[in-house]
Write a structure and sequence with these properties.
The protein is an alpha+beta fold. The protein is built from four helices and six strands, in the order E-E-H-H-E-E-H-E-E-H. The chain is globular, with a radius of gyration of 15 Å. About 10% of the residues have low confidence.
């Protein structure tokens, strides 16, 4: 594995640390999708969570300089997706390579799919947390 995964509470909270490079975006998405499957999220919620995570990771790889951290936490009826990038902005990369019409939709998508979105900026990092409501898991829906 190219990054480090830390399980603080097995099955409920995981953090993955990776280089903030676009080559690792797929690694992060697959890791998150597999984990959410193991946690038993219903398919619609899982798909929304993977899309949110993908958008936040894409932002981190585009704007972060050195590393990124991806956190997933499932507690009671809440799924938290946290992505942080560190090292300050990349100079001369990202925005100029895209047309104005193809840039800036990611956080709008995240805001639409999540119940709450929080963005915090510090001198050398951006931290974004999206919160989703979990009504039931796949295992619970099979028993009803």
């Amino acid at each position: 594995m190219y990054g480090n995964a830390f399980a603080d509470r097995p099955g409920h909270q995981v953090r993955l640390a990776l280089p903030a490079e676009s080559a690792y975006a797929g690694v992060a998405r697959h890791f998150g999708a597999d984990l959410l499957d193991r946690w038993g999220l219903v398919p619609d919620l899982r798909d929304s969570a993977v899309l949110i995570m993908g958008e936040l990771v894409a932002n981190a790889t585009e704007h972060g300089r050195s590393r990124m951290s991806i956190g997933l936490e499932l507690a009671e009826r809440t799924l938290r997706i946290r992505v942080a990038d560190f090292g300050g902005p990349r100079s001369g990369r990202g925005r100029r390579a895209r047309s104005a019409g193809s840039f800036g939709r990611g956080l709008h998508i995240v805001r639409t799919l999540s119940q709450r979105l929080r963005v915090r900026r510090s001198r050398n990092s951006w931290r974004v947390e999206a919160v989703l409501r979990v009504e039931k898991t796949a295992s619970a829906s099979r028993t009803t």
